[in-house]
């Protein structure tokens, strides 16, 4: 099982729809892509109150590709992540992950084992008493021994600037520390793909720098939602913009 608790709604404004346009940025621009990891075709999603969030959205992610996703609140960015993970069921369209169409809830079990999702709200992700227990939860569920899990916890915490935090009470951490802890719970499971929803929210410059180093030092397929365009340019090779159903260019 994954280390994910979740909300299934994204707050938004009005009857916005989402379409994507890709804008090149600097990092890894020469990366050669191979197999499709995720493909969404003609996705439509509306909330129960009738608000349209996504309408006719196409999206794909290729192996080793690193994408940024930005746009106004309510444009559907978080909803796309939740559709990929099977946390929300679209009213129309096709979801294909790792080459297999995903139709029923059971189809997403292995998706959640292979893709790590960082939720927008860290409290949705952290539910153990201490940092050590939270970060070890995933590795232990993957069948690692206690000793292996502890080794991975220490290694992951050091990478993200949480060395010495292992026995801290999770819910007494600051917002930024919780964010790093939530990312550590995902990274410790060594997923094939990372979906990170606002990973730098509440972080200081030093913590953001650690995340940049972490993402750039590992050849991992990932999609990152952020309003921080400078950050996205450091850790992605292209950016998708969702804005009220219109294709739009990314201002330099």
TrEMBL record:
What are the annotated GO cellular component locations? ATP-binding cassette (ABC) transporter complex
SUPFAM superfamilies from the UniProt entry: P-loop containing nucleoside triphosphate hydrolases
Q: Which domain of life does this protein belong to?
A: Bacteria
Q: Which Pfam families match?
A: ABC_tran
Entry keyword set: ATP-binding, Nucleotide-binding, Transport
Q: State the residue spans of region: Disordered.
A: 1-23
What does the sequence similarity comment in the record state about its family?
A: Belongs to the ABC transporter superfamily.
- The protein in question is named Cobalt ABC transporter ATP-binding protein
The scientific name of the source species is: Candidatus Magnetobacterium bavaricum
